Amino acid sequence: MDLSYWGFQRWPFERTFAQDRFYTSPIHEEALARLLFLVEEHRRMGLLTGPAGTGKTYLLRLLYERAERLGRLTVRCDATGMSGIELAMQIAIACHVPVAVDDSPLRVWHGISERFAALTLVQQSVLVIVDHFDHAEHSCQQALCRLRQAAEAAGTKLTMVLASRERVVPSLLQDHVELGIDVVPWTADETTQFIQFCLARANSKEMLFTDEAVTAVFEATSGVPNSIVMLCSLALLAAKGQDATVVTSECVVACAGELPRRSVDHGVANRTAGARSMVGSAAR
Question: How many CA atoms lie within 13 A of 142 on its CB side?
């Protein structure tokens, strides 16, 4: 990749978790503050929702790091395609329960209960983070209910945070969710600020996207951060191929056809200045 053509020190639009390269918008800042509230106040469960590409996984990684600094025993797993016992096994292993892959479910749950009892003795709180919960099998709901019961029986302070594209609270977990946090796509102004931030971070002396190009980026992506990153990268590469000095709206529109199709109705109808509470029971 020829960075010198644009005068970049590094590529401005990257899909990376590196904290010094990620633009934390007000939406993400508020969502993280709500997630930390759940952890610090030992709440039972939070539900983080939003369309694909809006930064849920990034927020969960940030939460994982912050929670460990707070001294929580933190478990983070991706529930995609998992059954309930597979999820329980992952949690058990992360909690240092001595289990084997061929152990029976009874043995796994017995090990978790014993581990929770030991954690209670040393006043160790636990945070379980489950990403892509909407892609898990239904039995994962039952597993998390059982995990809650094991924690309550042992007196362990357990907080669970689930991430899902859907706003609907899973039926078996409705009595456990105390706070819902919705991460919505960016507005047109936030999209502009993000592009400016990325270019400045790459040491660009100029705004390389015309105003019309920025508008075209927003319209093509509906403000979904991951799509913005992909489209801006494609547009810069295409403009370079045409020996252009700026990215035009025509270039953006031509590149937009290369983006994967995704549903954005969830965010388009609900853009706000920040993340919002879904379940008004945080004071429970």
Answer: 10
